[in-house]
Amino acid sequence: MPKLPAPPVPAPLKAPPARPGEGNGKVAPVDHGRNAGVAVVDWVDERTSLSGGARWLMFRKVPKGTNWFYTLGSATMFAFLSQAVTGVFLAMYYRPDPSGGAYESIRHVTNEVFLGQFVRGMHKWGSSVMVILVFLHMGRTFFFGAYKYPRELNWVIGVVLLILTMLMSFTGYLLPFDQRAYWATIVGTNINGTGPLLGPYLSDFLRAGPEFGATTLSRFYAIHMLLVPGAIAALIGAHLYLVTKLGTTAPPWLKAEKDPELRKAEA
Amino acid sequence: MNQREKEEYLREYGILKSQGKPFFPYAVAKDAAMACVVMACIITMSLVLGAELGSKANPTTTTYVPRPEWYFFFLFEVLRVVKPPSLVPLATIGVPTLGMILLFLLPFYDRSPERRPERRPIATITGIVVIAAMAFLTYSGANAGSPTAIEMATPPAVLKAGGTTLATYEAGKLAVAQTGCLACHKIGENGNDGPGPQLTHIGARLPRQGIARTLVNPTAPMPSFRNLPPQKFNAVVEFLSQLK
Ligand code: HEM
């Protein structure tokens, strides 16, 4: 099999090469143990050829001058992952039952479940953090002109992600089913209904009917925890594929220095 | 960008990229540090601010003042500022929809090859103005009442009397806003001018008993308000009779 090139690990982290005389004899069980990780990866890679993709993703170069503003996209992704994990725990207790069960289940999580209020708080404030980060990331790509050729499509995917993120917070707001949640959602769906053409249909779809009814809550719940997160996860995948394929932009004020070779040739 | 500019960009970018560092571990380390900051923020906010739960949803209350999550405050503020009902859909749906379309199409109408913010003054200034406008609307939305609230100065006499007079006045103002009077009456700058008469100076035209009688036995199409709870009913009458 062809040998993979060594990853660019900083020198202090590299394992020292084996000394002569060491490990040349019989393969001891310790060596098997030591190589177990490599062996497993090899086994999987022989059957999937995933290592090429992993290398393509991890060992690509990022341009010179890449600064902290470039971490905002991945920070948004981490906020999303945090929402996904805390959301799973909340879903273990939540009941989308408008006749009291929903409110009761949230009250139970908040007041009785071990660390319940903490996890609910993380989910609640995490949504604000994610919204802020999406906007900051969008601001970064806007002011850096990162939406220009050849990254137009990634910008369009980004705008869809922005809308989906806002939709998450809109549908999630109803779920605790307290006064605040209920009335804000009534107003929200009514605003939606005043829109031209699609407006009334959209709010009928959200409410599951012309009025806020018994199935509205479960519809919001399904949208909030299945439909939209699925779409967001898929689109983040597409977004990152394009980021990897096209590379991240260099900061706009950076000019490429001439290749030293070329300069020599010109002189 | 034309073909030459595209190729120029790709060539330039290729050089900058080849002079860069590998994503792993350099960018990964920065991203991981940032992820730790994000998690620390979320955990701190959860610990300090907690997760409150209000009282249970009750579709029959009419006195609840709805408030959205803070990042929808700017929309909420637009709804509050724009009073004429024919313009409300335009403001709440039209403006955001237009904004979204402009955002979607941005790479397709801004086709210049320039990327430095200071050399793209139109884009940069537009971006800053939009951010400032959203921040302003969010800020004023955060400090505002409900879209169905009545905004007008409290008469000095009521302010001077203070105590229960003031409390009843405020309760009446809230009740009037939430009972739907504004759908047909204009009060100050609030509500619709018609089909009912303006109520801005109703206290000068009708005595207190007259107002109460109209509320119980109105002329069609106004509905009767005799079923309001007595306390609320009195507050409404008190508020209206102060409008002089
Ligand atoms: C859930 C939301 C989002 C996630 C998780 C996400 C994630 C990322 C990540 C990890 C990158 C790599 C470079 C960087 O971090 O800056 C990136 C790049 C990019 N994103 Fe996003 N993004 C999101 C939303 C958006 C939005 C709302 C927009 C704009 C409307 C956008 C437009 C772009 C563009 C144009 C790039 C390329 C930037 C460059 O090459 O310098 N993204 N995104």
Descriptive overview:
The complex is a heterodimer of chains A (267) and B (244). With 267 residues, chain A is mainly alpha-helical. Chain A has a domain at 71-246: Cytochrome Bc1 Complex, Chain C, CATH 1.20.810. Helices cover 64% and strands 1% of the residues of chain A. Chain A has 11 helices and 1 strand, in the order αααβαααααααα. Chain A has helices at 29-34, 36-48, 50-58, 72-91, 101-111, 116-143, 152-174, 179-193, 199-207, 216-246, 260-266, and one strand spanning 61-62. The two termini of chain A are 45 Å apart. The mean pLDDT of chain A is 88. Chain B is mainly alpha-helical. In chain B, a hairpin with a 2-residue loop joins β2 (186-187) and β3 (190-191). In chain B, α3 crosses α5. The longest helix of chain B is centred in the N-terminal third of the chain and has 27 residues, at 23-49. Chain B is elongated, with a radius of gyration of 28 Å. In chain B, 21% of the residues are buried. The model of chain B has no long low-confidence stretch (mean pLDDT 84). The chains are: A mainly alpha (267), B mainly alpha (244). Chains A and B meet through β1, α4, α5, α6 and α7 of A and α1, β1, α2, α4 and α5 of B. The structure holds protoporphyrin IX containing FE.
Question: Summary?
Answer:
Chain A has eleven helices and one strand; from the N terminus they run αααβαααααααα. The mean pLDDT of chain A is 88.
Report the major sheet of chain B: 2 strands, antiparallel
- List the ions, cofactors and other small molecules found in this model: protoporphyrin IX containing FE
H-E order of chain B: HEHHHHHHEEHHH
Question: Based on CA inertia axes, which overall geometry of chain A fits?
Answer: extended
Whole-number radius of gyration of chain A?
26 Å
What assembly state would you assign to the polypeptide chains in this entry? heterodimer
Count of discrete alpha- or pi-helical segments spanning 4 or more residues of chain B: 10
Largest sheet of chain A: none
The rounded distance between the terminal residues' Cα atoms of chain B is: 65 Å
How many strands in all of chain B? 3
Percent of sequence in beta strands of chain A: under 5%
Please bin the fraction of helical residues of chain B: 55-70%
Question: CATH superfamily name of the domain at 71-246 in chain A?
Answer: Cytochrome Bc1 Complex, Chain C
CATH architecture of the domain at 71-246 in chain A: Up-down Bundle
> Beta-strand level of the residues of chain B, as a percent range?
under 5%
CATH architecture of the largest domain in chain B: Orthogonal Bundle
Structural class of chain B: mainly alpha
The gross shape of chain B turns out to be elongated
Distance between the termini of chain A: 45 Å
Task: Give the spatial strand order of the biggest sheet of chain B.
Answer: 2-3
| Structural category of chain A | mainly alpha
